[in-house]
Design brief:
Blueprint lengths: L1 H24 L3 H47 L13 H92 L1
Helix pairs in contact: 1-2
InterPro entries: GOSR2/Membrin/Bos1
GO cellular component, one term: SNARE complex
Organism: Tachuris rubrigastra
């Protein structure tokens, strides 16, 4: 009776908490976070109480069950075995063989799972190495592209220097020929 009353009160608290949660969402923004935090804390506390009640009920149930079994054991009258008592060894042997075969099957399953996991680890290591090499090549290509652009720029500048030098040389030769002849 007391447990049912406690449970009813906890349910009532839960319904009130749901209403509080709705009301906390209608609070002004500066107070809303604090109100929601308090409601969540209350929910946590009530859930803790609910768990404690369930644990108490479970322990009481186990205690009652043990007392019932004890009373049944004490009330039982024991008699001697009949002469027709037989032990079903064949069924037990088949059961044992089935268990051993299931055990072997599980061992094989675990072994294959271990092999698959090891293969995946090896593939991961291989893929990591490949990824690193690809990044290295990409970095080298980036560096090569930069170097190639610098070389092209330098060749372009050298071409202008050469053309300028040829023009200056031609002008000097023209002037020398003009003034010396």
């Amino acid at each position: 009776v007391v447990e049912n009353e406690i449970q009813a009160r906890i349910d009532n608290i839960f319904s009130n908490l749901e209403r509080l949660e709705i009301l906390s969402s209608k609070e002004p923004p500066n107070k809303r976070q604090n109100a929601k935090l308090r409601v969540d804390q209350l929910k946590y506390d009530v859930q803790h109480l609910q768990t404690a009640l369930r644990n108490f009920q479970h322990r009481r149930y186990l205690r009652e069950q043990q007392e019932r079994q004890r009373e049944e054991l004490l009330a039982r009258t024991f008699t001697t075995n009949d002469s027709a008592t037989s032990i079903p060894i064949d069924e037990t042997l088949q059961y044992n063989e089935s268990l051993q075969s299931a055990h072997r099957g599980m061992d094989e399953l675990i072994g294959s799972g271990t092999n698959i996991l090891q293969g995946l680890r090896d593939q991961r290591v291989t893929l990591k190495g490949t990824h690193k090499k690809i990044l290295d090549v990409a970095n080298m290509l980036g560096l090569s592209n930069t170097v190639m652009r610098l070389i092209e720029k330098r060749a372009f500048q050298d071409k202008f220097l050469m053309l300028g030098g040829m023009a200056v040389t031609c002008v000097i030769m023209f002037l020398v020929v003009q003034y010396l002849t």
